[in-house]
Amino acid sequence: MVNKYYGSCLCGRVSYEVSGDFDAFYLCHCSRCQKDTGSAHAANLFAKAGRLVWLKGEADVTHYQHPGSLHTKSFCQCCGSALPSFSESINCVVVPAGSLDTPIPVTPTAKIFVANCAAWSADLSNVPSFDALPGQAKRDPK
Fold first, then answer.
1. What is the chain's alpha carbon radius of gyration, rounded to the nearest angstrom?
2. What pLDDT, in 10s, does the model give residues 24-62?
3. What domain range is 109 assigned to?
4. Among 12, 68, 78, 91, fewest CB within 10 Å belongs to which?
5. Which residues, 6 or more positions from 99, have their beta carbon under 8 angstroms from its beta carbon?
6. Distance between CA 74 and CA 94 in Å, rounded?
7. How many domains does the chain have?
């Protein structure tokens, strides 16, 4: 039986299915992924034998290829959410982990390009955690 995972964008205009197994799950700290996500890193799953099928809204998906690099990004043109893409250069389906609606059975394989890590994200172990916006929920004791 082939594993199937489902995902969508924030506004709900686009949904997809990925069939197959994930071979790797990288947290990429390169400067392009920081710009791409607006955060400390990208969290992408890679499926070499994966198959990507758009269930809804394929016409709303825009693709960007960064000039002179392997860096690509697919996203919803309405809400901007990151979406999967098929990377021909590595013959692989690349899935932004946060776009999945289905739980995945894997944890990150590795952090990559850590030499480019944003200084503010190098050690987050002492940052307080909350279940919701601070002041609106009890603090998580972790």
1. 16
2. 999 999 898 899 899 999 999 999 989 999 999 999 999
3. 4-119
4. 68
5. 7, 8, 9, 81, 82, 83, 84
6. 10
7. 1
Strands 24-28 and 110-112: parallel
Q: What is the pLDDT of residue 142?
A: 58
The 3-state secondary structure of the chain reads: CCCEEEEECCCCCCEEEEECCCCEEEEECCHHHHHHHCCCCEEEEEECCCEEEEEECHHHEEEEECCCCCCEEEEECCCCCEECEEECCCCEEEEEHHHECCCCCCCCCEEECHHHCCHHHCCCCCCCEECCCCCCCCEECC
Q: pLDDT tens, 78-122?
A: 999 999 999 888 889 999 999 999 999 899 999 999 999 988 888
Give the bridge partners for 51, in sequence order: 19
CA distance 91 to 31: 23
